[in-house]
Amino acid sequence: MTNRHGDFVWYELQTADPDAAARFYGAVIGWQTRAAESPHGDYRIFGTGGADVGGLTSIGAQCPGMRPGWLAYVGVRDVDGTAAEIVRAGGAQHVPPTDIPGVGRFAMVSDPQGIPFYVMHGTVEGTSLAFAQDRFGHCHWNELATTDRAAALSFYSGLFGWEGGDAMPMGEMGEYRFLVHGGVPIGAVMDRIPDGPPPSWTFYFGVADIDGAAQAVAGNGGTVCHGPAEVPGGVFIVVAADPQGALFGLVGPRRPS
Questions:
Q1: Which of 4, 70, 135, 208 has a 20 to 30 Å separation from 25 between CA atoms?
Q2: List of residues 6+ apart from 208 with CB closer than 8 A
Q3: Domains observed in the chain
Q4: In terms of DSSP bridges, do strands 32-36 and 43-48 run parallel, antiparallel, or are they unpaired?
Q5: pLDDT tens digits, 118-145
Q6: Cut 0.90: pTM above it
């Protein structure tokens, strides 16, 4: 895999009902789903336009109490070294560095605020386009809601070389600080909303028609939590929950009336 150290290279939905989730995201984002060989049981691939953008796996009885949700894989040069560095920096390791034959090596970790993610070194040829801001159906934005913005920015910058970019004031909610990688804004870090969801990453997937996608969320058993709301750049966002309760975002234009 030719992605840089610190690139987002994969997104994974962990859900209690893979069949229902596949139907839901197919209706909302237009993803096709296919089965994949996996030593860990039922694993499926979300794809669009001939490109793979993410995975779908069952939480299962082996993970009691785990909430459905989306996690990201960040590409690194050295999984073992990065996992050890994360622990030294106050994070935690939940799944040790593990090989997936024909795919790569990964570890499941969490940052010092307890927010989980994966690090991965892929061995497949080509470049991951899971994060591609110019393609509908791919992730366009990675948003971290945390209990300590400054500590989170320091942690991720030290690991992946991300930089803090411009910031937008959000009143009592503090600031919305952009995350920049290789000169390109890839997301942002913000304070967790009081009484809102637990600290977590939220991933925004691009759609061609934000109003149509929001209607598809509601029409297929999901919940629109926020939006459509306009954001800088003349596009609109929606924050939603799928029928199993996994939070995700959508971003895209409004179709001319």
A1: 4
A2: 136, 252, 253, 255
A3: 8-122 (3.10.180.10), 139-252 (3.10.180.10)
A4: antiparallel
A5: 999 988 888 899 999 999 999 999 999 9
A6: yes
